[in-house]
Each structure stands twice: as structure tokens, then as C-alpha cells.
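Why does residue order matter? Because the sequence determines the fold. Keep that principle in mind as you read this record.
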Amino acid sequence: MFSTYTFYGNEKKENDNVIYDKTKNNFSFLKDVLKYKSNIQEHDIKKGKSYLKGQASIEYYNTKIESDYIEFNWKNGDLYAQSKDKYVFLKKGEHQYFFNQIHLNLNNQIGEAKKFSIKEKNYIVVADEVFKKNDDFVMKKITYISDPFFLKKKDDFPDFYLKTDYLKYYHSKKYIFSGPIFFYWYKVPMPIFFPFFYMPIKLNQTSYEIKYPKLGIQNKKIYMEDLELFFPISDVLNFRMNSSIYNTETWRIKTIIKYKLINACHGFINFNYQNFSNQKNYLFQWKHDSDLKSEKINFNANINYDSNILYNQNEVFSSINIKKKLSNYLWFMDFYMIQNHDKNRKIRFIIPEFILHTREILFNNKKNFFLNQVNIENRLYLKNFIDFNNKKYFRTEFSHDMSMTTYFPFFYPYLKISSQIFYHDFYTCNFPDFFYISSIQKMDFLTNIVSIPFYKIWKFKNTTLLKHQIKPILSFHMKYFPPVFYNVKNNFEKKINFIIDNNWMIRDTYNHVNIYKKIEVLKEIKSSFIIDDNFIKWEKFHIMGNADLTKNLEAKYKTGINFVKNKMIYFDFCFSSNYDINFFPIKNEFQKKGKNRYDYFFFDQKNYARYTIPVNLKIDFHSNYENYFNKKKFFQTFLSLNGSINITKYWKINFHTDYDLLKNKIIFANLIFHRDLRSFEMNFNWILGENCSWSFFIGLKDPNFRNIIQYNEKN
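Structure:
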């Protein structure tokens, strides 16, 4: 007679219980990690089995299984779970799986399951059978569904899905391989299939990858874009190739090799080649970055060479940078190559450029009243230029920049006073056609006095507070140009800048709800004066501001006048308004509610479906006026309308238009029609105007297959 004990009853053991067999077996380690609970529990000590019935669950490590019935064998590690009405639920880490029944051995990780399904955010995978051996999976009779209506349970059958008879996941090699994949549209096979499917699983290590191309039609010709192949060369190198073919005369190939070294250095080598109507262009790039510690040398490179304006750039820039930090000193050495695509097609070299940067903080002593803190920065530049055109041209430049900043605590905190001194010294030498040396020296003295804000508060009927705040700033600026090689009179430029920050703030405290509203009608008033020997000259006057007039209405402006340089009067005004409107809102009189196809609607007395039509509209008005004293005038005024309208739940129209009010014509107009087709989506983009163009797209929403199944045409 075998020993059996049984617990009956509907009570749930909320406490986590531990099961273990007193006989010797290989699973005694689970007694400290395996937890269970169920309505009814039976334990057969002789057979070494446990039976859990009714809302049963077993949890060990990061795996949890929930089912109507669970049977576990402590002698060989077999676990069997089955549910009649609901699925067997298995959670491992962050992944969730569903089965009709599952048989799994915890010792050798071999098992099988029936009616398997896994649901992610954008798709669900269903399989009739799943076999697991170690970490590899084999699935049979698989269906892949990405229909959002089916995922949200609006419909019992998907409109579009993929099916295959065999799929295997190789855990060690990190990729998925399957047999032929067939496409179904409303249960009808489509004349599209893949002979096989291969997909690498990107984890911490690189793997082989094939990216399927995007197919489209342009000018009644089929083209292919972005067919991509990726594979690792070694642990530190990988290779990627991307190709596109539009016709026999237009195609391109992109190749890139990426590397990552042990010493935190990484980069890539890129080579692009393309043929447009028998015009061959190529681009070479090498970029290297080093993330080394501060006490070591940093080496960075960015080399570019373009054969013929491959990316419509007027200038191609290349550089090599070496940086070394020494205590408070920074030492840079740079090499540059600048390739110009003008008529002369110049190539210019800067070999080398030396930069030495120092920074010191002096007198950092709060007890010293006059020299509380002084910062000094020095920059030394040395450059050598070589221009290759018809003749070689050499030029050498030496530059020295120094800045000194100090802060004075006079009248603190009522006034914040800071002074800065900038010194710039520049020498240049040109040869071989003609030899000359030129020099420029300049000194800037700048003092800023910033006052604390002044404000006044008005209170109206205990419901509204009005606050006016002004913050004045006064600065003195002087430039000095001393002569070096030429006997020229010393040149002083003295300037005074006066700035007022002006803000109005309204706070509504009605019903004890604080609502702040900031009005900056005169946000900034700025005026500057030039001081000569005998008089003060007004240089410029500038005003800017903005205000939220209502909840959806905003206005901005700036205006000013220049009296000295670029003598002009200018005015710029911008007015914008944003509205969200719902046409045909649902009223209380519509009491009848019913389902039409996949959605619920309210119906009127004549049984017409009623639904809201949301509209978003943004209106921008921009006017710009410039009047130069030499009789040149510019005046532009534009009105822009942007927005969208959902004429139905699945039809949406976006529009954008720019209208020139002075010329009385539309300068740009764009209409985009969007249609939601369940698993698919359709877009028609139409640009009106002088350069009229259009494009049409219909394809899958699923990002995993969007580039594979689509129709794309443009003029």
C-alpha cells in the first residue's frame, strides 16, 4: 500500500509553501527555491509526484507557471501543466507565453507544448506545437499576426497574416530560420511568398544580418532601395554593405567597416560609390574617436574626400586632432584639409595647427575685498596654410588670446559687478610670390553692472494680482587698437549699453486656483551709445516682446533702428494661433448606441451614425520690414495655415499652405491623405505649386515587414 495524503477544500494557500521529497534525488536543491499554491494539493511520496489542482501555480527562480492543473515529478524533474478553459501561462523574466498544455523537464531543459502563443506590442505569434531542447526551439504550423484590430480584439479573424510550417531558433548562434513563408489576405493565399526566412537576434554580440530591400515604382519603373548585408569580421571589426538600384544607369553602393578597440578607441571607414546617368561619384570617410583618460593623449580623426559634390556640399572638411592635458594646461595639435567645390576646385591644408590653452584662478580669497576672484585664460595659436591651386601658396599665422575676469562685491547683493579684459594679438606671413608680414592687436575692456529686479504688485478685488518687474543692466565697453608696425594714431572705441528686462505677470486666484499669465509686451529694451572725444553718438535702439493674449493666441515682435553701421529701420512681427475643434459633438439627445462593423457609434432618430470630427488648425502671420537709409527697402508678409482633419475615424487629411499677401499668391501648398487599412496604411502626398509633385504609398504598418510588402510610386 502506498502512502498518499490529500488536502481538500476551496481555501487558497496564500502563503508560499515549499515542497521537497525526503527520498534522495537530484532535485533537493529546489526545496529552497520552488514555491507553489493551489486550491487542492495531492502529494504521492512513493512515486515522488505532486499534483496541484485549481488555480495552481509553481514559481522557481525567474520562472512562473500558472494553470488549472500542474503535475510535478521530483525524481526525474518532469513538469506537466494543462488547462481546459484557459491557457497555461508561463512567465520567464519579462517574457510571457501561453500554451494549451506543456511538458517540460527541469533537469535537461527538454520539453514540448501544444497551442503555443506569444503576444508582443505590435504582433502575436501562434504555433500548434513547440519543442525545446536545451536553449533551442523548434516550432511547427506557425502564424504571425500584426493586425491591430485582432490584437485589440475588435475582430475574431485577422485581415492579414503570415504562415509557415517550420521555424527554428538557434540560441547559440542567435538567429531564427524558417521554411517557406506564405502571405494570406482574409484567409486567401496571396501570390507572394518567401522561400525561407532568416533573422539574426541582436543581443550583446554581433551576428549576420540581411535587411530586405524596399521596392517601389517611379516613372513606371520598378526600383529597389536599401538592400543591406551585415556580418562580423572579428571581435573588433564588422562590415555592412547597402545597395540601391533604380535602373541600369542609376545605382549606388555604400560600404562601412566599424571597429572598436580594447583601449576605448572606436571608429569607422566608409566608402560610397554611385553612378547617376554615367556620372561616377565616390566619397571616402574615416572617423576615429578615442575616449581615453585625462592623463593620456587623445587622438581623433575625421577624414573626408568627395570626388564630385556627392552630397551637394560646397566644402568638404577633414581634420586630425591630438590633445594632451598637463595639469592646468591643454595642448592641441591639429591637421586640416579643406576641399572646395568652386570653379577653381581648391584644396587647402592647415599643417599643423598648435594650440596651447591655460587657465588659472588667482586671489580666490573671500577676505580680499578688491580682488575676490580673478580668472585668467591664455590661448596660443600657430597655423601653417598651404593652398594647392595653380600655384602653391604658403601662409603662417600666429595668434595669442588672453582674457581676465574678476568679480567685485560692491553693494552686493543689490548690484552685481564684473569686469573683463580681452587681449588679441595676431601676426601673419605670406610667401613665396610676395613676402609681407602683417599684424593686428586689440584690447577689450568690459564692465557689467546688473541690478536686482524692481517690482510693484497691485491687487484687484481679492481675485487678481498684477506684478510689474524691471531689471536694469548697464555695461561699459572700450576697444583699444595699438600700433605695432605702422605709425598710426591710437584708436579707441568706447560704448555704453543699457538694457531693461521688463515683465508683467498676472495671477488669478479666483476659486483658490492660481493661474499665472506672463505678459512681456516690452520684454527687452536695449540701447547703445558710442562715445567720441567731443560728443556721444546714439548707435542703436532695440525693443522686443511677446504676449499670450488668450489661451490660443500668441504674438511676438521686435523692432529697432541702427544709426551707425548698416543704417536701417526694421520691424518683425509674428502672430500665431492654435485651435483644437470638435465638429458635430455627441449630444445627450443621441441615446441610441450600436456597433457598425468594428466600432461603436451613437445613432440619431433616423439611424444615422453620429461621431465627432476633430480638427486642428494653426494660423501663423509673419511680417518683416527693413528700410535702409540708402533707399533699399524689403517688405514681406506671409500667412501660413497648418492643420489636420479626421473626416472619419480612419481617414485623415493634413494640410500646409503659405500665402504671400503682398504678391497675392500661394507660394507653397501641401496635402497629405492618410487612410488606416487595419494591417496596412495608405498615404498620398501632393505638393501643389510651380514644382508640382506627388507620391503614393501603401504598405504594412508592422515595422518588421514594412519595407518588404509595400507599393511606393512618385513622379
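Residues 222-313 form one domain.
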